[in-house]
Amino acid sequence: MEIKVVKHILEANEVIASQNRKLFEEKGIYVANLMGSPGAGKTTLLEKTIEKLKETKSIAVIEGDIETSRDAERIAAHAIPTVQINTGGACHLDGNMVRGGLEGFDLDQIDLLIVENVGNLVCPAEFEIGENDKAMIISVTEGDDKPEKYPLMFQVSSVLLLNKIDLLPYLDFDMERFQGEAFKVNPRLKIMNISCKTGEGLDNWFRWIEERTSKKGS
Amino acid sequence: MEIKVVKHILEANEVIASQNRKLFEEKGIYVANLMGSPGAGKTTLLEKTIEKLKETKSIAVIEGDIETSRDAERIAAHAIPTVQINTGGACHLDGNMVRGGLEGFDLDQIDLLIVENVGNLVCPAEFEIGENDKAMIISVTEGDDKPEKYPLMFQVSSVLLLNKIDLLPYLDFDMERFQGEAFKVNPRLKIMNISCKTGEGLDNWFRWIEERTSKKGS
């Protein structure tokens, strides 16, 4: 019975997510859904991405958090249109929440919309929001055994950012094991090793997202 | 409408959790529900705890994971009765799953049952399983701003284990901020700074859980 309820919610969400997707398509907006555990580095990656791309792309951000508007304040400080969604307990964003958030923007002025989901390696992966790509970020401190233990997010993501590689010397992290598991779960996954702290590897990510944004733009 | 559905599920869960709690009470078993994000160090803490206490207490473990039986294999290697629950996608354990898991044990032979929940800083905090205490573990690599962003788990936990303090020299982690926020969210929270890697601070935790287990035992 519980399964039926969840299925019902997921199907209702699919409808709204499709409407969002159609709207983004019409407006020529590329949308990335950025997901990962609390503390993986989502907001810091966003800040770096905005600093790099804001001269050439019109960027907007939706911040999803259970509580507080701290992340939106961090993003808004970069002079980017930002909407904070507080889920008030819910563990993920869904299509309807994102649709509500869109009312805060002039969609004709946006090339790239990045949606930072609630920090959670599980639930956000189940809910479409109308995005073009799901991007996940995980830090090396979370351990090399996570792809097979939390497979869904690895399966649905187009790109995986492996963050905090500056900490590798102080950890027992088996890179070969991690990548092997990740590819086993999702053979099409694009993995980028990065450090938001030192900047290492970020150019790959900037190029990847800029290219996809340009294809959508008119 | 969605809220009603969730409420219904939560109420049904409360009933089963109460039945579990009554059973644990009858059998004199102390039960801790160990929660935290993926990679926070739950399984490693469990291994250290078992090694320390298994001579004086009869310990059993329920491992909750979405997929794989890796954590249960790690625990069973310590010659402790272990049950693996694979939720097959669900982001938390609930009372019913734990009740099913109990069938794998001889409850008359257990003093201390530790339930390692699914790795997730959000959802497990919402579902009672019949435990005496909720214990949360978070690592310093997850950032000092988490208590106010993910308040529920901090609110419902009796004890907070702040792990990986051996990595503090390589991070920008403001201990005062973290503790201030944690106490603001839950003034009764007992915070222990630990490193499962170096063993620092673990004696506090061992004493805490041993004491609570002894009180329950007949």
Structure explained in plain terms:
The structure is a homodimer of 218-residue chains. The first copy, chain A, is α/β, with parallel strands linked by helices and 218 residues long. Chain A has a single domain, classed as 3-Layer(aba) Sandwich (Rossmann fold). Helices cover 41% and strands 18% of the residues of chain A. In chain A, helix 3 links the parallel strand 2 (59-65) and strand 3. In chain A, helix 1 (2-27) packs parallel to helix 4 (95-102) and helix 2 packs across helix 8 (202-216). The longest helix of chain A has 26 residues, at 2-27. Chain A starts with a helix and ends with a helix. In chain A, 47% of the residues are buried. The interface between A and B is medium-sized, with 35 and 35 residues.
Briefly characterize the structure.
The structure is a homodimer of 218-residue chains. The first copy, chain A, has 218 residues and is α/β, with parallel strands linked by helices.
